[in-house]
């Protein structure tokens, strides 16, 4: 769990250090822009943005039990970020597999995409869909349970 915070923390620390140095050199505008870039990179790789990833085998097992789709993704992918953001809170209903951390997940994506690691690849009912429309993915989810 702790390893998931290493990359975002490094982005924040490096961006802060560079921005501080640039501000001291008299270029605060450039420093602010650079800090925003590093913060965006940290956010894209943050475990707060993407639900906790699990292995491909576990995701397939859980999907077989509950019927929820499996999303194969990787950090830094703008299409994965778009899917995650457009799904909102419903993203937690899917099973997420980070292909950079799970070799079996990467192999499953390559098998579905002619040898390419194209993400996001969403598996619904055993069928892979490469970079599907977020609205379509939302339709594949069961209706949200009513709040009490």
Order of helices and strands: HHHEHEHEEH
Low-confidence stretches: none
Instruction: Indicate the mean pLDDT.
Output: 86
Give the strand tally: 4
Q: How much helicity do the residues have?
A: 40-55%
Strand content: 5-15%
Beginning-to-end CA distance, first to last residue: 31 Å
Class by helix and strand content?
alpha+beta
Largest sheet: 4 strands, mixed
Rough shape? elongated
Report the radius of gyration as a whole number of Å: 18 Å
Strand order, main sheet: write it out.
2-1-3-4
Number of helices: 6
How is this structure best described in words?
- There is one protein chain.
- With 148 residues, this protein is α+β, with helices and mostly antiparallel strands.
- The chain is 49% helix and 11% strand.
- The protein is built from six helices and four strands.
- It has helices at residues 6-24, 28-44, 56-66, 78-87, 103-112, 134-139; strands at 70-73, 95-98, 121-124, 127-130.
- Strands 2-1-3-4 form a four-stranded mixed sheet.
- β1 (70-73), α4 (78-87) and β2 form a beta-alpha-beta unit.
- α1 runs antiparallel to α2.
- The model has no long low-confidence stretch (mean pLDDT 86).
């Amino acid at each position: 769990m702790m390893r998931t915070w290493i990359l975002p923390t490094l982005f924040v620390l490096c961006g802060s250090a560079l921005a501080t140095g640039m501000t001291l050199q008299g270029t605060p505008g450039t420093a602010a822009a650079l800090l925003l870039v590093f913060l965006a990179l940290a956010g894209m790789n943050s475990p707060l943005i993407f639900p906790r990833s699990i292995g491909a085998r576990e995701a397939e097992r859980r999907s077989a039990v509950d019927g929820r789709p499996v999303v194969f993704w990787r950090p830094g992918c703008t299409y994965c970020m778009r899917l995650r953001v457009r799904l909102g809170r419903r993203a937690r209903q899917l099973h997420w597999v980070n292909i950079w951390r799970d070799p079996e997940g990467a192999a499953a994506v390559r098998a579905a995409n002619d040898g390419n690691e194209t993400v996001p690849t969403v598996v619904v009912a055993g069928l892979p869909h490469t970079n599907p429309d977020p609205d379509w993915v939302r339709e594949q989810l069961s209706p949200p349970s009513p709040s009490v």
